[in-house]
Amino acid sequence: MKLLAISGTITGSKTKVVVQKVADEVKKNHPEIEVEVLDLKEYDLQFCDGRDPSTYTGDTKKVIDIVSSADFYIIGTPIFQGSITGALKNLFDLIPPKEFRNKVMGFVATGGTYQHYLVIENQLKPIASYFRAFVAPASVYATNDHFNAKNEIADADVLSRISQLSHEVVHMQKGLKQELQVHL
């Protein structure tokens, strides 16, 4: 099984720190899981223009293939203006919805205020529902207060939520995989 941890931003660094930490927890506790981190900063994605995804080339085609090949996901975004990033929305638009169907998603967000944690509930979870994906009950939201001067997560509660999310997505995906094998 392959977990893809996505840092859905082209700016800042805190979201990637949290996404990477969840990925590292999965690697540490479940070495049988293949884990890859996709940092949107490292790719030059075209804007989705409604064409067939198979006609994109370059980085855009590469990212579509990476996302489509994963079995389950950790998806992270900073919250800007009370919403997910345009880069993450564009990624969602580029991927055919069937690629997310019956796959587990866990969500991570970072933001400047404590109130923005609701973006996970009010935007990310409905998008997952549209994709007919399964959502881990736990999520992680971190603000600048949760990081130290070295940009490391320094808050025990956030670290605990990261651990919980890492276990939940693996547990759910293993159970789902087993259930689908029984019924196929």
UniProtKB/TrEMBL annotation:
Residues 1-144 form the NADPH-dependent FMN reductase-like domain. InterPro entries: Flavoprotein-like_sf (IPR029039), FMN_Rdtase-like_dom (IPR005025), NAD(P)H-dep_FMN_reductase (IPR051814). Pfam families: FMN_red (PF03358). GO terms for molecular function: oxidoreductase activity. Keywords: Flavoprotein, FMN, Oxidoreductase. It comes from the Bacteria. The keyword Flavoprotein applies. This is NADH-dependent FMN reductase. It comes from Neobacillus vireti LMG 21834.
